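[step 3/7] fold_predict: job queued, chain A
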Amino acid sequence: MMNNPGRPRNLILARMPEEQFAAIARSLVPCDMPSGMKLAEPNQPVKHIYFPVSGLISIDALTAKGESVEVGVVGREGFSGMSGLLGEPQMAHSVIIQGAGAGLRIRTQILRDEFLKGGVFADLVHQFLYLQFVQTSQSALCNRLHPVDARMARWMLTASDRIESSTLNLTQEFLAQMLGSRRSTVTVAAGELQRQGLIDYTRGRIKILDRAGMESVACECYQIVRSAYVRVLGAY
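[step 4/7] structure written:
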């Protein structure tokens, strides 16, 4: 499916047929998406759906004690607020901006009305839903079976792909939270990646120096998920 020139860089919006895009275009509101901004919280209404054109959205599962682990990420290939679009008014997870960027937001009900009409837009949503399932299920396997250095390399590569940059602005504390690991464990793993010359780490900033080397460290989960996205969307 070809992108439409002149459309937002978000892949779903870019691939909507002209008639369907025109039906929602006036309701799309440009917005900044600063790091740390919360788009949704568990058991709260999903009032808006966000389509990133840059930056990175993190979907996190939370415990009753407030502990969290990342179960999915969204870049310009998708959108946040899937539950609201499908008719479930509340989110089960926390949704937060992990990498600053920009996007377009729309009231959930407006987009749901268009989704219920079917057509190509509904097909695009179903494709993205499938890819989210692939990502989430692979993350569950990865968090259970793979060592922290492999998971860290996978996460950094995935984040780099989504924001289209080799530089990631984040702290080790935040990375530990995303990986569901102790900060001390993440510190050791990051130090080893730096010692091997694969990354450069300074406080609050990680730069991937050797992508091929990072791919060799990452577990197979990275390529499994990447291949699914490329097959379905033609991009990652």
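[step 5/7] annotate
The mean pLDDT is 91.
The first helix runs from residue 11 to 15.
exit 0
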